Amino acid sequence: MAAIWIALGTNIVGMKIGKWTENAGAAATWLLGGLLAVAAALVCAKRGLATPMRLMPHWNWETVSFWSTIAYGMSGLEMAGLMGAEIHDPARTLPRAGWLASGFATVFYASITAAMLALLRPEHISEMNGYAEAGGAAAAVLGARWLTPAIALLVLVSGLGQVGAVGTSVSRLPFAAGVDRLLPEAFGKVHPRWGTPYVSILTLGAVASFLLVAMQLGDTMRAAYQEMVSLMVITGFLPYAYIFGSAWKAGKRWSAVSGWSVTALAIVCAVVPTAEIKNVWLFEGKLAAGTLAIVASAGLAYRRARG
To answer: Domain residues of the chain, as ranges?
Structure first.
């Protein structure tokens, strides 16, 4: 909860301050990746691989939802476009950033996945605590007690950067809707001193805080984490149906078809529970209720504005 408000609070002050939260998060992410990669190499040299490496994926219903997580990890490039007015030469900068970000994200995820599998067997790596588990295994083999707290600190700073980046970009959507009077006019207000859409950012923080608590009701922390990830994937990918529909109308046929395909795959896979989910009906019920609440609230706000 503190991380949410620290990350969003620095961005309310403005990008001159908020960008350092995102920069620190990005640097921590790469430091974390490099630390795990080096630790994995040292452990492998000492005791060998923990998991036999196979390039071809193995079909397993318990890991189907991971496909949606992979798709979600490669999404978000469109959010930078929402901040085009705050980016120097966006027409030139954003396409280059998109290619670079996609390439680096692919290398990062593949490398860290390989490093973690080199340290531990897949059944000993949980989706929520994988970094800590891999770091703990490396620390035990190498006798480096400092490794585990270092990883914990880097994960925390990385999370701050992610919340700040997502929050400051996503908040521009209700801000734009407020300016166009599709949401209450308050969403279109900017701070008199810092020039940021502070009402939109504060509302986002309140909703995020509520979901953080609500998703844990009646469930374990791991189940709540999986529900949050699945809900983010579903509600995050629904707008892509419209985005790629616009690409089709603009004549970008291959972009539209490939985008629709990944969107459908991500949403379907997000509904499939992982092995950590013990109460499937509660899991599916929360997903359905959360998705319905988001879609219904947006529809209600739109109809009120148009009426």
So the answer is: 1-161
